[in-house]
Amino acid sequence: MNALTVNVAKTFAYSVFNSVIDNKPQHVTATWAAICETLSTHELRGNKNGKAFSPAEYADGKRRGSSNVLRLNLIAVDIDNGNINVVKKYCDAQGWAYVIHTTWSHTASRECFRVVIQPSRPIHPHEWPAVWSALYHPLGAQADVMTEDLGRVFFLPSCPESGSAEKFVYISDGTTPADVDALLALHPQPITSRTK
User: Fold this and answer.
1) Which residue did the predictor score with more confidence, 160 or 57?
2) By the 8 A CB rule, do 176 and 94 touch?
3) Distance between terminal CA atoms of the chain?
4) Segment (H or E) for 79
């Protein structure tokens, strides 16, 4: 029996940035419920640049960058030209607590979205490549390889005005966080490029 349970009141430390070129992390601590709320509203933008977040926690005074990441307290993966229903089906089958929201480039004919998953524990920097690789094929083998970067930032939900009717958010309360140790136990082969 899986003893892990979802706690919507549990807090998670992560970082926010004013734009993609901002390299000074602003520390935020929020409950899972509050994180879901933050990821539930799309901002209309003329381009995708704008406020962003990172699952990474940094030491005080450190600039954004993979070498300065202390730990990842959330799992975030971008999926371009994927299938939202495939990802939902997989995450639901695991019982995970997660959020899916479309990203700025999403269209009806080309699904681009992000999945943010509650992990069972913080992920250490050396563990992230294995965790990311363990999720790559189950999430449809369309995960953006750039999101394997520890220092990657993710824009908060946004869409162009022309795509406002196609934006999408789905929240699952789930029954369990993603078991980090179970993902590590899979010992997946490193993923270095998209599957063609």
Assistant:
1) 57
2) yes
3) 38
4) strand 75-82
